[in-house]
């Protein structure tokens, strides 16, 4: 590695004094080069975090845009009569970009000082071992899932729904790009679940590298985008890991406007009974298909669409009720 200029040499000496560069992997050397090139850790971390989010969010959404454009894949579409149009996808993209640039970009420069203040490693090398990172990432998944399970239910009540979460429910048949289509306050509230786990973990253990947080965020973005994709393939993760939520779980939430409040795992909705309508619906679809074994594929699809339409009609009523319900749930109190 060659660094030119006094500024770069200063950063190198200041941040990496005593580091044995020959012992570093290619990725670790690139990490050092990034921090030295930018010359300011606050900007280097902020910029890397923002770019990571943009590249992964839109990069992961592109395959779903292509899949939506190819009729062959409709056989695995959960709501096959609702394919997002290019105009809808573009409108959604503009909205997501707008909130990324107006909300996230100004706030991201606080990330490095906050992380460092809590004792998180940022520019430091070498990276932690995989066996250190894996259980930390599992904890972040667990924490976020439970946080989201509670906060998402709160967002389904009264003023919080009417003024905040209603935007995310614009699409009763979601698509990948719609994962972050939400009110800025919702991005903040639910984003807390993603970032608070690492911050708390770091505060209490003093043993966390930002690379682990980045890996977690990449996985979380994949989870969120795939859950909104609208497709359930035979090879989708929930068909391999039964407690994984996936699109099959979250698509129902958008279609029925109720049940299935968590993100990654199915267990909380199952334990607290917020998946009963979803399971009844699945049982009805299976029973109808079982009773029509000898019917044509078209006839089977027709009955499934009829059941979907019923659930969606119930969802419209449930949405109106949610808007009229008090913030703390329970009794219906008219919100003017
Ligand atoms: Zn919701
Ligand atoms: Zn959603």
Automatic annotation (TrEMBL):
Keywords: Coiled coil, Membrane, Transmembrane, Transmembrane helix
Top-level taxon of origin: Eukaryota
Biological process, per Gene Ontology: lipid biosynthetic process
GO molecular function: iron ion binding; oxidoreductase activity
Coiled-coil stretches: 278-305
Ranges where the Fatty acid hydroxylase domain occurs: 138-274
InterPro entries linked to this entry: Fatty_acid_hydroxylase, Sterol_Desaturase_Related
Cellular component terms per the entry's GO annotation: membrane
Transmembrane regions listed in the UniProt entry: 32-52
Protein location: Membrane
Alphabetical list of Pfam families matching this protein: FA_hydroxylase
Name the record gives this protein: Fatty acid hydroxylase domain-containing protein
Organism name: Hypholoma sublateritium (strain FD-334 SS-4)
High-level lineage: Eukaryota, Fungi, Dikarya, Basidiomycota, Agaricomycotina
């Amino acid at each position: 590695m060659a660094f030119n200029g006094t500024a770069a040499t200063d950063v190198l000496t200041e941040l990496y004094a005593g580091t044995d560069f020959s012992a570093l992997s290619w990725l670790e050397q690139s990490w050092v080069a990034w921090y030295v090139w930018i010359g300011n850790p606050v900007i280097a971390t902020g910029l890397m975090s923002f770019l990571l989010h943009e590249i992964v969010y839109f990069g992961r959404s592109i395959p779903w845009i292509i899949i939506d454009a190819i009729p062959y894949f409709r056989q695995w579409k959960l709501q096959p009569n609702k394919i997002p149009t290019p105009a809808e996808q573009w409108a959604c993209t503009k909205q997501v970009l707008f909130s990324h640039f107006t909300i996230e970009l100004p706030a991201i420069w606080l990330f490095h000082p906050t992380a460092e203040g809590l004792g998180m490693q940022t520019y430091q090398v070498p990276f932690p071992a995989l066996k250190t990172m894996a259980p930390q990432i599992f904890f972040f998944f667990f924490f976020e899932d439970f946080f989201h399970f509670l906060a998402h239910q709160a967002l389904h009540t009264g003023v919080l729904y009417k003024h905040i979460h209603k935007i995310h429910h614009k699409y009763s048949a979601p698509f990948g790009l719609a994962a972050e289509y939400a009110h800025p306050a919702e991005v903040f509230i639910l984003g807390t679940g993603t970032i608070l786990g690492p911050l708390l973990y770091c505060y209490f253990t003093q043993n966390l590298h930002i690379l682990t947080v980045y890996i977690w965020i990449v996985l979380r973005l994949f989870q969120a985008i795939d859950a909104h994709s609208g497709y359930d393939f035979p090879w989708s993760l929930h068909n391999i890991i039964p407690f994984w939520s996936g699109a099959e779980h979250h698509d129902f939430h958008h279609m029925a406007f109720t049940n299935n409040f968590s993100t990654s795992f199915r267990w909380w909705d199952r334990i607290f009974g917020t998946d009963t309508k979803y399971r009844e619906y699945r049982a009805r679809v299976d029973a109808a298909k079982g009773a029509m074994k000898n019917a044509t594929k078209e006839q089977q699809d027709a009955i499934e669409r009829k059941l979907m339409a019923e659930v969606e009609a119930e969802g419209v009523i449930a949405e109106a009720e949610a808007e009229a319900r008090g913030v703390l749930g329970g009794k219906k109190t008219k919100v003017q």
